[in-house]
Amino acid sequence: MSAAPPLPVERPAPVDTDPGPPAISVSGVSKQYRIGGREEAYRTFREALGDLVSAPLKRLRNGKQEAPTFLALKDVSFEVPAGQKVGIIGRNGAGKSTLLKVLTRITEPTTGKIQIRGRVASLLEVGTGFHPELTGRENIFLNGAVLGMTQAEIRSRFDEIVAFAEVERFIDTPVKRYSSGMYLRLAFAVAAHLEPEILIIDEVLAVGDMQFQKKCLGKMQSLGQTGRTILFVSHNMSAVTSLCDRAILLDQGRIVADGRPEAVVGQYLSSSLGSAATASWDDSEDAPGVNGFKLLSVSVRTRGGEPTAVFSVEDELKVEIVYRTTLPEIRFRVNALLSTQGTCAFVCVEPTEMVRGEPGVYASTVTIPGNLLAEGEYILGLSVFASRGKKDHLCRVEEVLSFQTYDPVTGSSARGDYTEGMLGVVRPKCEWRLERRQ
Questions:
Q1: Could you tell me which residues are beta bridge partners of residue 384?
Q2: CATH homologous superfamily for 24-33+67-273?
Q3: How far apart are CA 209 and CA 165, in angstroms?
Q4: Average pLDDT of 304-323?
Q5: pTM of the model
Q6: Which CATH architecture has domain 278-406?
């Protein structure tokens, strides 16, 4: 089974007007770590002088062996114009969090240069920037002061921050007594409401419950509409495609794709899952199928016939199953099963046993209408069987390929302009009517 070919690196199209200096400029940045080592803390002059004297003795005692190193980032360069929303994706260990730590000056790059123009608020891990001994109220004012805001500006947003975080009862309690969820809610509320010009958020949102994650995504959506620059690291591909207007894919510390979120997410799914958009079998001997049936390829395609692994929930999509029959007058039906998060969404089955009169290559295509699926990752399974008498399975593959759906939140899908959580694996667009009876 061969994976879909990788998409070329796509750069955003240049604009005609001068947008001014970028909010973030990253040029040739690399970050090297020692395996088993740790970052050095700030030292006094006396400690540095002592190390200078003792270093030769340590080298003699330990030999010339040096700790092995690895590059978490390798020559990373990109620019982010002011007001752009950028999603950073990749597998665990690809360098995403390291990049954000370098951007927020938590750690220094080994080589390269970074320029940031604007006030930055970051949320990289639970409790970043909070003092555990201070109350929630005191930490709000502390964070606002760090961002350069006056007390009057902080007070004007204080009630909104507390209401968003849902910690009214505990706002005067030291945050060291908060649960991780309370900590996260308050930290995000502070970062999002104190008017940063650049907002940097790591996968820390995964700590919160589903409802709060949706609430945060809705807030980031509204921030993006006000011209804020957002860098967002996430494994939630639906969030990246719906929130961001650009995505950067990291792999082993390098940028391997940069462009439209749908294309970059499609490349990521193809490389990480190996079965996105298209699955095919070159060797007919190894192809799934028995008794005169061999599966050749399966793909999910747009209405226009282009294979892709990412769809808007509003898009119509087609599932194309190509197979070879070697027996005449063979009859069977093809069954496609879509599931998400271990739950069957629905089954599509050919309504009758179709007769394939002559041996040859055939294609069965089923069309799934737009505004049916919810946001998420869907797994496609196939079953080919003859049901006359005892059911005879000619082919069964539980997980053929996967694809992603996202909601662009344009107001034209089933969610309308509602941005918070919606349950269900399908989300049909139903007709609503309002009338006054009295």
A1: 334, 395
A2: P-loop containing nucleotide triphosphate hydrolases (3.40.50.300)
A3: 13
A4: 91
A5: 0.63
A6: Distorted Sandwich (2.70)
